[in-house]
Amino acid sequence: MTMAIVFGDTETALTAARAVNQTHARVRGEGYRAQDPALLMWVHATLVDSALVTYETFVQRLEPSEREAFYQESKVLGRLLGIPDETFPTELRDFETYVAEMISTGPVRVGARGLELSKLVLKPRIRLLPGPVMIPFGVVTAGLLPEGLRTQYRLAWGPRRQRAFRMAVASVPRLVALTPPVLRVWPLPGRSVSLGGTP
Predict the structure, then answer these.
(1) 188 φ, ψ (degrees, to nearest 5)
(2) 15 has pLDDT over 50
(3) Sign, CA torsion 73/6/1/3
């Protein structure tokens, strides 16, 4: 969905956003609805923050102006998914404060369900890349997470893990460059988006 909205043409992006919004409209519970602007904002924030952290870790550092531009442009995605303008932190520095406060003193906590779901992230069922061929997702995930969340997810983070993460940071770009297009390129109508570089 994110790839379709970010890299697709207008029709593709709007179709993807409508599909997500229709699904969200059906997700309700006691004191909960998926279209709650505060909840939408947090999900959007995790996507934006993860994109910045991952890009700067595995590709290259961005200039402050580039980071700001990315954040401002990301609001287009959020608006398509129903986030009101007044919900967005105004500038990137405000956004970074929002994310930090949500994790440190806000409602973001890893509970039993989060621990259960994290297993699907750390050990995804990818038939094309079984066993030892797979990138050590646990190490990469632990390395990218803020310390507080890493602790709550009970992810080990000693000297050996830190060395393994540094090795992953150095080797992943090379592995992506050698990965066959069938695994590296995300197909969209009318174009393909390389997961390891510019479209």
Answers:
(1) -130, 155
(2) yes
(3) negative
